Amino acid sequence: MNMKQKYLILVGDGMADFPIPSLGGRTPLESAATPNMDRIAASGRIGLLSTIPDGFLPGSDIGNMSLLGYDPRRYFSGRAPIEAASMGIALGPDDVAFRCNLVTIADGVMKDYSAGHISTEAAHAVINALQKSLGIDGELKFHPGVSYRHLLTVKKIGAKLECTPPHDITGQKVDTYLPKGGAAGDRDYVLSIMNRAKAVIAELQQSALSEAETRHAATDIWLWGQGPAVTLPTLKERYGITGSVISAVDLVRGLGKLAGLTVRIVDGATGYLGTNYAGKTAAAVAAFESDEDFVYLHIEAPDETSHEGVLEKKIQAIEEFDRYAVGEMLEYQSKNPNLRIAVSPDHITALSTKTHDASPVPFCMCGEGIKVDSARRYCEAEAQGQSINTIEGPEFFERLVGGD
Fold first, then answer.
1. Contact, 12 vs 315, CB < 8 A?
2. How far is CA 15 from the centre of its chain?
3. Distance of alpha carbon 133 from its chain centroid, rounded?
4. CA 20 to 30 Å from 365, out of 96, 203, 220, 265?
């Protein structure tokens, strides 16, 4: 057996939270049944991790970059260019990529940041219509992605605009959150794209049926997360390790690709409840069995259910993550003791606000070379007062790889 040291990071996106009165002052993590994460905490180390440096908005882009050991203060340029890397979109020196959500806006209110979790088939019909109507060769191009998540690339426009993620304003009037600031004329140009897109989507909805042969909830596009191309030194260059990233989300796949990891695509991986957990853990095992050193396995469902503001769904997402992802990989570790496992959210996603928060999150890790603390279980309260004080992403990654 090859006993080379292996490393696994299991990410429960947005699963950390604040105490909730209806839970008797406990958090969803404290209330959920999480025997496998508890086992990691009790057999290893637990502490608090600051994934969002001061001055940065608390997003999955910043949080996952931190968990992969990269300091956002040095490397971050925007969310959309990371997703562009995942989608194989090469950005030139003059290109700016925007995240292009399909959303539902009614009476000036952000009703749904995901257009009812629009199907990829229906979404592609919308994006293709936008490209046909608005696309300007070499200057303005819509790129189809997955479900509600797509990209728009433009030339030399909007990199310095202040744009708000749509999932941060669910149920709120959108007027005060439209793009602002930036260079002269940029705001008006970007708003004109959004307004023209609204007309195209309305016309498509009024036609007999979309190309996907289905109606959908999309009314608008929402542009945000923009930035120029980003480059990262690979994990092989930094630590001499190879590995894979497993996620249903283009953002996380893009970070993995930029870090030099293999992107493993899993059929049925949805980014929501009931995703193909078995396929994801099988892909992780396949990566290790092919002699890769590292796997970054990301589960999106806790974040999505938090944005919906549904407590029962968030607890379900946490329990599914614990049972079908963490539990399966602990079973693999029991037969492969050279594997170190770490668990962490990328940020808090609070049910009370339906959005992200920059406060520290609990992490835990176990395996050969990892010291054992006095923790009994994995949750926010247990992480406080342990021997590891609040650390940042690069130190978290180095503790996992270096052992502590």
1. no
2. 12
3. 30
4. 265
CB neighbours of 333 closer than 8 A, spacing ≥ 6?
A: 339, 341, 367
* Cα four-point dihedral sign 282, 288, 291, 294: positive
Helix (H, G, I), strand (E, B) or coil at 355: strand
Alpha-carbon distance of 76 to 231, in angstroms, equals 9
Q: Give domain 6-76+232-402's CATH superfamily.
A: Alkaline Phosphatase, subunit A (3.40.720.10)
Q: Phi first, then psi: give them for residue 41, nearest 5 degrees.
A: -65, -40
- Residue carrying the six token digits 């493993």: 264
404 or 256, which is more confident:
256
Q: Which residue has the tokens 């690069």?
A: 394
Would strands 339-344 and 361-366 be described as parallel, antiparallel, or unpaired? antiparallel
**Tell me, what's the pLDDT at 62?**
96
Angle between helices 186-206 and 120-134 (to 10 degrees): 120
Write out the residue limits of the CATH 3.40.720.10 domain(s) in the chain: 6-76+232-402
Q: What are phi and psi of 231, to 5 degrees?
A: -130, 145
Q: Which residues contact 148 (CB under 8 A, 6 or more apart)?
A: 101, 102, 103, 113, 114, 115, 117, 118, 123, 218
Of 288, 368, 383, nearest to 328 (Cα)? 288
d(CA 381, CA 372) in angstroms, rounded, equals 18
| Cβ neighbourhood burial of 88 (10 Å; 0-12, 13-18, 19+) | exposed
- Angle between helices 327-335 and 35-43 in degrees, nearest 10: 50
CB count within 10 Å of CB 270 equals: 17
Structural tokens at position 113: 């940041």
pLDDT band at 1 (very low <50, low <70, confident <90, very high): very low
Percent above pLDDT 90 for the chain: 85
In whole angstroms, what is the distance from residue 167 CA to residue 114 CA? 8
Q: Cβ of 100: how many Cβ atoms within 10 Å?
A: 29
Number of DSSP helices (H) and strands (E) in the chain, helices first: 15, 17
- What is the pTM for the complete model shown? 0.84
